[in-house]
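Troubleshooting log. The previous structure file for this entry was overwritten by mistake, so regenerating from the original sequence record. Sequence copied from the archived sheet and checked twice against the printout by T.R.
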Amino acid sequence: MASTLSKKQWSEILRNTELTHEMDLAIFQILYSSNEYKAYASQIGILLGYQGTHPHAPLNSEIGRYAKRIARFYDIQLTQRSSKRYKYWDLFFNGWEEGRFFVWQLKPELVDALVDCHLTGEQPYAEELVFDPETEFYEGAKKPSSLTLMKEI
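Regenerated output below.
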């Protein structure tokens, strides 16, 4: 079984741009926005714009490269298969088969680190924004209509 990284370690990894690339964050953000932080690898691939019969294949490659970058930086054990190959995904996700699909679910420590690092990909809504009550806002400012602009031209 893969080493379990702490929330603190994940936070360090997520902030390290030598280890974590935009594609890695995009994968995590899709899973974060999914129900129970889980989705089929092929669903993630499709949402990232991959097409064809195996939209998950580029993700598997990226996850492998990412796990290797982390393994070089941290002293971790990757889960080894019986064929002496590794389950790279096991560092990031809980995973299981559902029929012909494979499910990835973000590990809780990684979810917590994404939240702490403000890397969930969520955009705050207006009611969640904090503003200074001293700031003045103006409504109803006049804008030239398109007809006025046409006459001036």
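The longest strand covers residues 93-98. Archived copy saved in two places this time.
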